[in-house]
């Protein structure tokens, strides 16, 4: 039996319930420069998933119609499109925790490489699929082999320290937004290449597989990232050590840790089910619901005729406006996220940004009411701009909560499992939320519940309740007890 160690000003007992970045002593320290090259490679890898997953959105409905999956009933297209879009998150939810735990044992880099290889393979399969089962299997491959998101968050936590963590995590949603912007552009511009570029793609192959080109481009980008990671990305997982110096998430002061007190090895899954881990994970799941509800309702609201509760935009206008969000999001987060966190603290910024979901939803019916009265005028565009800016702030909540999740890991060798648990939670809600939100939208309109606005009342009520329950339970700052 190991001897007990009494904690003092310079000694801290570390166990399964001690946050990885415990808030030891307060102090100020100059920000450590970010390892720019390594983080650039990590952000390049982060682009892969949104490019691959969202490149199918512009043409998925058309693909389903052309394959005659619905038997000619166009009303069923949305159902099958939702199934194909959601199946990725469903399969990811089943495997991502195990991939993340595996990365705690064998390293981050091998798991990341396997995930990117699986994604490139699945995109090639998707482009060659001519049946519903083929489309579903290819998306399942993507989800089942892809533990990348949780692993990349773990690597970002290991590449940063308490002085530059806000800067590092601010870059992740920026990269994801950039990928989510160019992904649909690839899909919309390159589908049916023989029709759009007959002199460049004249062969029979392109008429038989009109959606292979955007899928192939996404796969080629994945292969490029695979090779870049293989040759240039360094492993970040700390190896077995007998003594460790932990860094505080707030002040960065080293804590002297007794050799016998530190267990620098992955902990059991049961050990993660403690309030210090579950509270930030629950908050992550909460904002993932908000995000998916917003992204599912926006294109539906934009395309629905004004008299039925939407704005009646055509696809090109919808694509342009949603692409604008990605650009504005990237620019603003680069400029203001880290300064906001440093000035007001991660919890305050998180509460404000997560709460931005409520006015975003309020603006949906208000915008439609204005459009009903005056048509699509300057006031409608002003309200849409307000919604866009609020969406940027809401997206900042992800950078904040990732800091809390990183700080909640019992030790560095359990950071992957902690992020995996969070990502599994997010994947589950992301598989369910789009269909739920769009079904409530359709049901409200079909039955004229509260003039078709009942869906917004439900979402606002649920979000107020969720925010009161979850955000107030977070600790004052990453690494501190509640």
Describe the protein's architecture and organization.
It is a single chain. With 482 residues, this protein is mainly α. The protein contains 17 helices and 2 strands. The chain has helices at residues 36-54, 60-66, 77-106, 108-128, 132-145, 148-159, 165-190, 193-196, 204-208, 212-232, 275-303, 315-344, 346-355, 357-374, 378-408, 415-446, 454-470; strands at 246-247, 254-255. The chain has a two-stranded antiparallel ribbon. α1 runs antiparallel to α6 (148-159), α7 packs antiparallel against α10 and α7 packs antiparallel against α12 (315-344). The model is unreliable at 1-18, 22-27 and 240-263 (pLDDT under 50).
Keywords:
mainly alpha, disordered N terminus, 17 helices, 2 strands, 482 residues, two-stranded antiparallel ribbon, 68% helix
Q: Name the quaternary structure.
A: single chain
Tell me the β content.
under 5%
Low-confidence stretches: 1-18, 22-27, 240-263
H/E element order: HHHHHHHHHHEEHHHHHHH
Tally of contiguous helical segments: 17
Largest sheet: 2 strands, antiparallel
Question: Could you report the average pLDDT, rounded to the nearest whole number?
Answer: 79
Class based on secondary structure composition and strand pairing: mainly alpha
User: In angstroms, what is the radius of gyration?
Assistant: 23 Å
Helical residue percent band: 55-70%
Q: Name the shape in a single word.
A: globular
Give the neighbour order of strands across the main sheet.
1-2
How far is it from the N-terminal to the C-terminal residue, by CA? 32 Å
How many DSSP E strands?
2
């Amino acid at each position: 039996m190991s001897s007990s160690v009494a904690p003092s000003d310079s000694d801290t007992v570390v166990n399964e319930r001690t946050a990885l970045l415990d808030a030891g002593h307060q102090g100020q320290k100059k920000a450590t420069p970010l390892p720019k090259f390594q983080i650039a490679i990590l952000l390049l890898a982060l682009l892969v998933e949104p490019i691959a997953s969202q490149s199918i959105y512009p043409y998925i409905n058309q693909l389903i119609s052309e394959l005659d999956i619905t038997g000619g009933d166009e009303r069923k297209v949305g159902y099958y499109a939702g199934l194909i879009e959601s199946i990725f998150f469903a399969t990811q939810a089943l495997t991502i925790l195990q991939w993340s735990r595996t990365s705690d044992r064998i390293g981050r880099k091998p798991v990341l490489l396997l995930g990117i290889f699986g994604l490139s393979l699945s995109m090639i399969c998707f482009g060659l699929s001519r049946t519903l089962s083929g489309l579903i299997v290819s998306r399942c491959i993507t989800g089942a082999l892809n533990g990348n998101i949780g692993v990349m968050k773990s690597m970002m936590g290991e590449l940063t320290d308490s002085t530059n963590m806000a800067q590092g995590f601010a870059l992740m949603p920026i990269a994801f937004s950039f990928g989510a912007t160019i992904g649909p552009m690839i899909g919309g511009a390159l589908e049916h290449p023989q029709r759009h570029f007959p002199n460049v793609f004249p062969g029979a192959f392109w008429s038989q597989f009109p959606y292979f080109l955007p899928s192939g481009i996404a796969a080629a980008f994945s292969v490029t990232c695979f090779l870049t990671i293989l040759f240039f990305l360094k492993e970040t997982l700390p190896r077995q050590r007998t003594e460790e110096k932990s860094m505080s998430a707030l002040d960065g002061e080293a804590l002297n840790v007794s050799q016998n007190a530190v267990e620098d090895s992955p902990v059991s899954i049961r050990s993660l089910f403690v309030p210090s881990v579950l509270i930030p994970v629950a908050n992550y799941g909460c904002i993932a619901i908000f995000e998916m509800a917003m992204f599912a309702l926006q294109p539906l609201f934009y395309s629905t005729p004004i008299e039925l509760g939407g704005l009646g935009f055509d696809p090109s206008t919808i694509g342009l406006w949603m692409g604008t969000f990605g650009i504005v999001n990237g620019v603003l987060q680069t400029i203001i996220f880290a300064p906001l966190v440093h000035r007001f603290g991660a919890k305050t910024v998180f509460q404000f940004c997560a709460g931005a979901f409520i006015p975003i939803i309020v603006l949906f019916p208000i915008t439609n009411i204005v459009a009903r009265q005056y048509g699509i005028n300057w006031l409608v565009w002003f309200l849409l701009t307000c919604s866009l800016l609020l969406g940027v702030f809401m997206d900042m909540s992800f950078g904040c909560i990732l800091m809390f999740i990183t700080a909640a890991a019992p030790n560095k060798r359990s950071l992957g499992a902690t992020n995996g648990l969070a990502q599994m939670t997010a994947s589950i809600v992301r598989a369910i939320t789009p269909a739920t939100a769009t079904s409530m939208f359709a049901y409200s309109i079909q039955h004229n519940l509260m003039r078709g606005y009942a869906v917004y009342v439900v979402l606002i009520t649920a979000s107020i309740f969720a925010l009161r329950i979850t955000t107030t339970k977070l600790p004052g700052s990453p690494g501190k007890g509640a």
